[in-house]
Known about the structure:
By secondary structure, this protein is of the alpha/beta class. It folds into three domains: 5-163, NAD(P)-binding Rossmann-like Domain (Rossmann fold, 3-Layer(aba) Sandwich), CATH 3.40.50.720; 171-282, N-(1-d-carboxylethyl)-l-norvaline Dehydrogenase, domain 2; 291-398, Nuclear Transport Factor 2, Chain: A (Roll), CATH 3.10.450. It contains 16 helices and 14 strands. Helix 9 packs across helix 11 (215-223). It is globular and about 75 Å long. Mean pLDDT is 82; it is low at 229-233, 346-370 and 395-399.
Amino acid sequence: xxxxxxxxxxxxxxxxxxxxxxxxxxxxxxxxxxxxxxxxxxxxxxxxxxxxxxxxxxxxxxxxxxxxxxxxxxxxxxxxxxxxxxxxxxxxxxxxxxxxxxxxxxxxxxxxxxxxxxxxxxxxxxxxxxxxxxxxxxxxxxxxxxxxxxxxxxxxxxxxxxxxxxxxxxxxxxxxxxxxxxxxxxxxxxxxxxxxxxxxxxxxxxxxxxxxxxxxxxxxxxxxxxxxxxxxxxxxxxxxxxxxxxxxxxxxxxxxxxxxxxxxxxxxxxxxxxxxxxxxxxxxxxxxxxxxxxxxxxxxxxxxxxxxxxxxxxxxxxxxxxxxxxxxxxxxxxxxxxxxxxxxxxxxxxxxxxxxxxxxxxxxxxxxxxxxxxxxxxxxxxxxxxxxxxxxxxxxxxx
Length: 399
């Protein structure tokens, strides 16, 4: 058993189980949370509780952090005061899923204060944390990771040191993107089956008995099942925001495989849209428009050169930026602008070889021109809650 003094800031659904596991493995744990409810719920024997992050840091050789957002993490560490309060040679162990760039920035700040920094993505959930069965993606300098290793081996069954700080975040984001995309594809195939007249659970059971079987198929469709009157919908907005945070961070992954990333992001965006729809249905609210349906309608109108159908998709204050930089705003101006574009035939050649959703705010088109060249067009847009387009800009290149 180790006598290392441990502070743990953030006692939510993941942080509290990790802190409990550490205490049960012999670490002297001080649990810290600014929420009185979270702090009161942390009732692990032989642990201390504190509502003061600075006090917690000052008494910690190893300081775990598991807050929810980038902003919360920045507010906690960004001014350097908490890092300065830690004993020299201490280690920050970050379990939050945040931007890899933010992790690297804070690691550099920690180094200025003589503090090591290890970013550790976790997967498995609270029960796995309690049992020490988490999967961990670790980023950090070798010496810092070795100092943190007793902690990591206490909570993790699979510990993968992937490289310097930031790699833990990137590994976790790749894992989460695969998971969310798989949830989305599983929910999509069940939607397709329902539209064909299959019974939901019968279809899922049949698929789970075949080669389509997967964890995502067992979970994804359940996330978006109708829940009217069950009281469960209160969890859906939080689930949506949690998944969306990871999807947004995944957009910035440093890869040149844009088409592969686009495919995963498109499936992930479908899942987010289905969660929004499920939340609205459960609360008896009008179902929000699916942005992808609006995008599909946009391109259908473009191909048909149907200006009236196109304008139905726009909100009153929409703007449109032409490839030459000309900006039009308001429906009348946009109508004239699109008509001019239609008359010129310039940005929308046919046949369209591919239209692929890249992310929540962009769609990529590759169009084969009659002369054999390929025109690449990227459309950027933004949606109101009703799915109306609020702004759209078009960028083109040929080659």
